[in-house]
Amino acid sequence: MHPDKPKHAFEPKIIAFVCTWCTYAGADLAGTSRMQYPPNVRVLKFPCTGRIDPVFILKAFQQGADGVLVSGCHPGDCHYIAGNFHARRRFAVFRKLLEFVGVDLNRLQFSWVSAAEGGKWVEVVTELTEKVRAMGPMSEFKELALEEQWSGAINTAELKEAYNQI
Amino acid sequence: MSRIGVFICHCGENISRTVDVERVAQQVGRLPGVAFSTDYKYMCSDPGQNLLKNTIREQKLTHVVVAACSPRMHERTFRKAVEAAGLNPFLCEMANIREHCSWVHEDKEEATVKAVEIVGMMVERVKKNRVLPTITVPVTKRSLVIGGGIAGIQAALDIADCGHEVVLVEREPSIGGHMAQLSETFPTLDCSQCIMTPKMVDVANHPKIKLYTWSEIELVEGYIGNFQVTIKKKARSVDEDKCTGCGVCMEKCPVRKIPNKFDCNLGMRPAIYVPFPQAVPNTPVIDRENCIKFKTGKCGLCQKVCGPGAVDYEQEDRLIVEAVGAIVVATGFDLYTIDEKPKGSMIKGYGEFGHGKIPDVIDGMTFERLASASGPTGGRILRPSDGKEPKQIVFIQCIGSRAREKGISYCSKVCCMYTAKHTMLYHHKVHDGQAYVFFMDARTPGKSYDEFWRRSIEEEEAVYIRGMVSRLYQKGDKIVVQGSDIAVGVQVEIEADMVVLATAVQPQKGADTLAQKLGISYDKYNFYSEAHAKLRPVECATAGIYLAGACQGPKDIPETVSQASAAAAKVMALFSKDKLEREPIVARVREAGCVGCFACKKVCAYGAVEEKEIRDRQGNLIKVVAYVNPGVCGGCGTCQATCPSKSVELDGYTDEQIVAMIEAL
Amino acid sequence: MTPIDTSIYAAVSAAIRAEAQRILTEGQVSAVVGYTAARRKGSAQPVVITDANDAARLIFTPACVNNLAVYLTKAKKEIPKKGRIGIVVKGCDLKALTGLMGESQLKREDLYLIGVPCAGVLASTFDPARELTADSIAPKCSECDAHLPQGCDFLPPQTPATPALDRKYAAEIARLEALTPQERWAYWKEQFAKCIKCYACRQVCPFCFCEQCLCDRNKPQMVETTPRPAGNTAWHIVRAMHLAGRCAGCAECERVCPMDIPLNLLNRKMAKELKELYDYEAGFEVNDKGPLTSFTEKDDQSFIK
User: Fold this and answer.
1) What ipTM describes this predicted complex?
2) Are the beta carbons of C122 and C136 closer than 8 angstroms?
3) Where would I find the H helices in B478-624?
4) What is the pLDDT of residues B508-545, one digit of tens each?
5) Is residue A120 part of a domain?
6) Which residues of C touch B645 (CB under 8 A)?
7) Superfamily (CATH) of domain B142-332+535-575
8) pTM for this entry
9) Does the beta-carbon distance from C188 to A112 stay under 8 Å?
């Protein structure tokens, strides 16, 4: 059907956490407008970005997501008055934490997509998919999961001494 | 063990064109917990819904996933069908394989794989769904209306006419508000008092309306359907039950020279007074600050002359608690006094225009009182300074409004029309006078409005000058007005006898304090915010509280009355049921885990989180935990994401449900 | 190594003893939480005294490392709640107490705060009898801006020495920030891999006052509980996030970690970000809301598309 469509060696898994009133509806609009975007994204619907716990992002990476998108209503448009404002602070801080422990922030995208922005949804999802595809699989958390025990070096004098005495 | 039924919809060909629905049904059918899986042409059709209902009964299904269009489209449809088959509606979930899959992908293989995953995710989620009973909240079918201007009066009358009790609270001694002050009203020029006072009397006589004037809102507790409102009834010093309104007290009062606020301080009133003769209730109030009895302990004349013995110097402020189910806020507007920069205000003021310093520079409301037949001049346009009739009068529009550099960027909406009206009233009363209007634009949308404005120019001979006034000063008994006519490109100088400033419409003083008591939001100007600018223009985001009139933004009378009736309709819709039903997507606290840090309370935009004491059988306090009032909770779940121990959970979006979905990936 | 002057500690100890004795005698408090000498030479340990005669046992030395605030939190339930309680606090400890008050865990009127003018305490890796120097001082003290706790009920009048020291965490954060994400991941992977999930960090933290920790839940299991690298990493990330905007910087987690994981580094990094983003710092004033339970409409959103 689409002979020109490029086949990629790696298809990333993208998980999107979205609010139901704006971004989910925006994604619906992309559908009703028959826009096309890569099929890599799986959408999880929340009432509000305020409900999205940073642990979910961590969990998504642990479950093998190569990229994570969090998207909700533009500031001032929150159906629940201020949920997105709280989410904005929470994620501003959380992404700094992830960055500090060594997660490449190119894998974690945040966006405001309104119910009218089907086009923006397509753009955000496509861009993230392509970016993550180019980066290759998110192996860090997967590798961790495969390790059975602590692999840390015994690097303090006290520990070495204690270990040698065993 | 769950017995999940999965129904894959073809949506005609909308889904089946790009998604191999049979394969999806087959693959999903193999997932643990799935007892039944099928595909069907149109799930939302009658036969489709019957298939769903029958299968639930025949297969004894415990949960249902319908893979079809967006839940925003048909979730309600399928949940209803599931309920009809005897299952709790919240045990049904939809998997969106149309908007999020078949419509946005062309490759059938890719789309099918994605559809299987989407449905698989929802299967895992639905396993964790719990039975959620619909939440019902009892409704007290009484309503509070705050503000007794035209908005509050209209809302109160509409609600009361439907048979529901109304508590109407007004801060001033009489209801009537600003409309009672107006002379005539645009665009028909009917006398404001003539159309207003009958409504005021209707309020006073209505068996379903309980009127508290000279009263203020002290405290608002509770939530939609169940508010407890504490009203402070200020001491009037006159017993309303005994007073017959004869007015002898006012005649005999020796203090006579107190500027009357109702007449924009042009007229005088005694210390015991009603603000205007048609006041409702027609019961005087003693202005304790100016009363000799209260100042020195002497006098007491009014008490002596009062036949029924209604004057009571001992009266004190009283607190009254009223239980209501809905609140209409109709606190109206105030005109911005442009004398100088008010303290702590973001508005810069118009000191340069001499208001407050040059006596014949007045604002629009003062002009209304001059033009009013019941006003201090008996309806004659006379200068406050010397009582002479002004022969040249200048009106300046947009004073404060649309002046970003002065702090207000909005249009006050009514000034163009009332200035046009003023020029007409002036021309009717001073036949040989000339009116000039400085204006930026004439904004006259509204039924018969532009015609009205044209009439002021074409028939009533007002001269409109497009441009602003740069300078204004007193010269002898004239006021020199210098401005520019930008249409012609020349400087204009007019020696006027009187200048009328169309000052900006602002929310009533204390609007912010009241909003905080009510728990409603307001903008930077203190106008109250509606829940949605287009689709919910009379509701506050706080459930059970509605807006009417200029407290929400500048409005003219027809618009105010419409909104008041709309707010009344909303109240009546709420009162049409004995119990309020709401979707049970609300947060619940797991008290065992809650340590009472109240992070949830801090982030809750609805004020739904309360503090609850847990005590043992001896009554000793064990701990204080959070409690979410299901009547107030908006269901956003911000509390749960914030709670460190996850001791508050949003029903319908629990961590279990979400983690199940993530783990299905 | 440059010694740090701790000569005031003797006078401070005497003042603490006198005050503790007074408030216990007068019945102002039911107990005083403080430090006393432990068995090992020079070492100190927390003590709860209820008898005025025991006030003489109280000390303050560079070995008084513990943050005593933890004993007043709900999860620990160390001290029976009866009446007002006196507590000896260094500046860093008081910040923690202040945070706990902001989170409705403690009430100011239930506490009698005995402040300590503090020049610093020893790092946990040094012999408790050792002299306090720029080298042996606890890393948190190298960045201390709270040598004098504010708003105490009692504060000895001595002025502590506050020599400028190399800011140890700031330097380490800067070093890590300069690395690539892969290098940072490798660093933290090695650190977290050491974790044995003893939860000493949680036990000692004044802000881990939850009675049921999220990470102990199994429906759903948010964080893997076994001491494997994946679960360890998740645990430390979740803990750092939960402390963001709350941690007062007492560094007790790092001190008690038997595996020497630089846990306070994560907390300092978060504190740095919160300062930059929202101008928030843990301090001596009780705030109604923390930086992550409040917002402004103008908050940074440059990271949001």
Assistant:
1) 0.93
2) yes
3) 511-518, 557-575, 599-603
4) 989 989 998 888 888 888 999 888 778 889 998 788 99
5) yes
6) 210-214
7) FAD/NAD(P)-binding domain (3.50.50.60)
8) 0.75
9) no
